Amino acid sequence: MKIKRLVTISICILLTTGCWDQNLMKNAILIQTITFDRTDDDKFLFGIAIPDIYSNLLTSGQETQASNSQTLSTIANTPREGRMKLNTEIPGNLDASKNKLILFGEQFAKGDIYPSLDVIWRDPRSSMSAKLAVVKGAAVDILRVKPKLESSISQNILNLIQSTETNTIIPDETIQSLASEILDPGEDIVLPLLKIGHNGTAIDVEGLALFNDRKLAGTLSREESTLFLLLNNKRGKYARFTKNINDNKSKMTNFISLNVDNMRRKLDVSVNNDGDVSVNLNLRLDLAVEEFPIGNVPKKLNQLNEELSKSFTSEAVEVIHKLQGANCDAFGIGRRLIAFHHGFWLKKDKESYFKNVKFKSKVEVEIVRYGIVK
Amino acid sequence: MIRKENRISNTQLFFIIIQAQIGVGILSLPHDVSLISKNDGWISTLIAGAMVQVIILVLWGLGRKFPSLTIYEIIPRLIGKRLGKIIVFFYAIYFIVTGSLVLSRFIQVIDTWILQRTPNWILILLTLGVCVYLVKDTLRSIARFYVLVTPLLIILFGLVTYALKDANFLYIFPIGQSGIPNIVKGSKEAIFSMLGFEFMLFLYPYVKATDGRKLVAVSSANLFVTLFYTYMVFASLIFFETRQDLYLTPQPLLYMIKSYSFQIVERIDLFFLSIWVISVVTSIASWIFLASNGFKYFFGRASHARFLPCTAGIVFIIALLPRNETDLQKFNKILEPAHLGFIVVIPLFLFLFSFFFAKKRSGDHSV
Amino acid sequence: MKFIKKLLKYNKDKNENSPSKKREKISNHAFSTIKENISTINQIFSNTEDLVIKSLEIKTVPGVIIYLETMVDKEKIQKYVLNPCLQSPLEPISDMLGANFQSATVFNQVEAALLEGSCVLSLDGYAKLFIVDVSLSKERSITEPENEKVVQGSHDGFIETLLTNLHLLRKTVQSPNLSVKYLPTGTQVKSKIALVYLNNLVNEEIIHECEYRIKSISMDNVVNIGFLEELIEDSTLSPFPQLLNTERVDRVAGHLNEGRVAVLMEGSPTALLFPVTFFAFYQSPDDYSSRWIIGTFIRAIRHASFLISIILPAFYIAVIAFHFEVLPDELVNPVGSSINKIPFPPLIEALIMELTIELIREAGIRLPSRIGQTIGIVGGLVIGDAVVQAGLISTTMIVVVALTAISSFCVPSHGMSDAVRLLRFPFMFLAASFGFVGIVFGYIVLLAHLCKLESFGTPYFAPFAPLRIKDIKDTFLRLPIWKLKTRPLDSHPKHIKQQDPLRGWNYNDTKRK
Fold first, then answer.
1. Does C163 touch chain B (CB under 8 A)?
2. What's the ipTM?
């Protein structure tokens, strides 16, 4: 009986002493975006965007969204050191658990991006659904843009990324889903490429940034990005193209706008006895015509199908050419070799195997719908 | 006479063995196994399950020979009172040490993922308090609790399955690449996560069912656990790239679901951890229960509850000893032969011994 | 030291002069002379002034009639005693008095009878005393109990008189198997307790156990049924009630039909039912009067209310104080800005609001009904709003606390509602110390406790522990009546199969085709 009492009392005392891990929300300043840059004298520039603290001091009882963001940056050796340095400039504790956006400056991305991300994977409280992107120029500049439609710059970029994912311009990836691909010797990553446009008032998605073994190596334009994603069997809700079907100049009547309804991709990797890899990449698209200024789709259906197939195929060859030029194995050919042709993989040079892959690609197109008029 | 409040049914036996087996190992199993067998870890897990099944057959055979005695009563009967009692004592110590190791690993995970600054000894104390409260009453109440919390495993299963939408099946290939010796070595790692079936040594007389049905119950429990673990290992293998990514993540399951968010909640790994805590508590509680019953038979008292505070105290002290991952590894290595000895060698020896020296008795039992 | 000794001696002295010891000095046997009888009865009743002693003559035999004027109905005395005595020419008293009389020879019986409102006739020369029941019954009318209102269904409730309650039960359960057992309890003041059960269904062990427990009560005065409940239940340490209190007749009848036992006490309109499970507290007669889909839905909401009222404040504290990254991005800003200026840590905030709500609740019981409603609305709104405006409590905390308070009222049983109100606080403390892990530990202890608790031998958390899928049809869900073919097993009734097939007309029709 006595022991029972002793135990109960000690448990009660224990519970009243502490909350060691208490991490009060009101003390935390939530970082919304972090940026990594390389300065001209080869130093690491760490930047963050936090909600504007002063705008929260409204009449009590009223709630407000964090309307503006404040940008801070500092030179440091590693991201965590950068955060520690900035912590001293801010009242409150910087907290990265709601950080949803990580931006790399172009110069920085040309170096290895993996070491800078280590701190995000190591901290149990960081958000694994953060998005990564590369910015043309210096990433920290993009934080200074004052957007018109959205309240904070981070929200702006995130919404932008979301809508472009839906439109199959950039792949739907988070830092977690990219982790395996970054570490995979047989696959390379691609990241969205942002740029500041309209004289510093808006942000644009320019296309995709191609990486070769964690270093920035090339880019794809917007239309090429869409086709690339389709070739990689990743489709968002919409995938739109506007194509010129008549070699004439850019009169409106020479164009057609399409949306991909359905698609089927076949990728076959085969290795012959000499170890040469050849890939058959076939894509079959069912398209819906969204805009045809000339009019009367059914009459020209076969012609359109032929033209478009040719056009898409040549563009696909272009895209693959660019990928090979950048040595960016975004299709995961290497991974397939590891899986199914392991012997040959071991003999290959892990750095440059992708350049020597022979691609045979074909895009077949069929128009299946054309709206409510002919 | 086995009193009414200690009788459990066959279904309850099934659930108890599941809960005793599924514990702290599930989180680190995919990582540990793939360190050795790379992307064939799932085969290793299956093989481990098969090996456990063989051991279960041996244990069942022993239980069948003495259907109304627990292991603590079988040993003195076969070997003699004095030596038998000493072995019973060592069994109790073994269970205590195993329990402490499991508790220590559990606290390490909690420490790393959620409560970094809370002193470990407070968490250990809290866990032990809960475990002691769980097992201090009759076996029937323990069984009811174990049955009650088992459906929560379905939530774990669901969460992991949700994460598979980002899986890449290519990571599994080529199958069999690691070679048979590595696969078998990997299954040794997997067996340690499946420990808990030795609970049946103690439970055998309390279950009211025929011998055959008891074997079916324990075997199906083992089958369920094996499949469950294999699924988890498989899921980790197709989600993470094996050589580098999985190599770097000690708790891959948590990592998998960390990045997903539903409309109302974000860090799902916290919910996974919360449910997993319940499974671990049931595992640790089983070992404490076994240990205090061992002491009960050694000292010849009527109830195991009096030995619970003392057992918990020893577990507390031992669980405080390992300070980091390397200590735990060392601890594990020291314990390996003990596992082999107490779970495989001694029961096998008793089984064969009983064949030659003792006939099957069905009559008297002790409380 | 001396002072303490004096105190102890004082206590002992009090015990020595206890009435039960005084009793032994009075002889128990009735006397033949009126005078001795009168003086004995006066002594027993401590010469109380409402003991009326009237002399009368029955056929030349002098006699007295003794009664407590506060307990008897004077008209009945006139009708049943005086009139027959004076009018009828018959000699044997027994014939004169008619049907409702008893004869007694010991003063114990006389005392009990007088207390119940009978009058005692003592005739000179007769060693027997005659007792006639002429009690005054002033009881309130049968109305629906205040705390257990239902939308549809019978609106009958028990009242304070035991016999009327038993009458209501017998009217509802017209079966020869309905047995009543009287157990008088209490050493000083004898309270009448009745056990009611259906003989062909109930498990005899439960009856024996209950009788044993009631007979082992040695208490001066079992004041009300709450005392009785505490004296016979399995575990008083548990916050959960193990006997179901109810004032509704149809509820008792329903439970009797499942093999349970009801205990009723004179002076209390509450009946205690046992053995009960946790889920019995979440059943309401309303479920059975409405359609089964709605019944299932409402029951599910009630069970959810249990979880909400215990875990919601703790969950909120854990999220705000420990793991705010659980909040989705869209919520971080509103919640964050609402707690930004609050000076207190979340635990203190929560405690302040919870205690305020408890105070309002407690005060609301005692307010007169007209003011009560207004104060309730004004208090809730004004306090809530003012406190937020003053910047003391955040708005989200008010929402959480209000939700919790509402859901703790969803329980049909008062005892369970109290238990749930109490359990919130340990969970809040655990959450404030250890976050989610603390809540999980608390939850494990709660579940383990529920699994261990037994009510008269029945597991409290049946049918979930031990698992009986067949019984879930009436706990969690409310399956259609024609599916309820078997009785639930938790009360171990003798006959499990209840009825089959229920929709005989439908069944027979298909057979006919």
1. no
2. 0.90
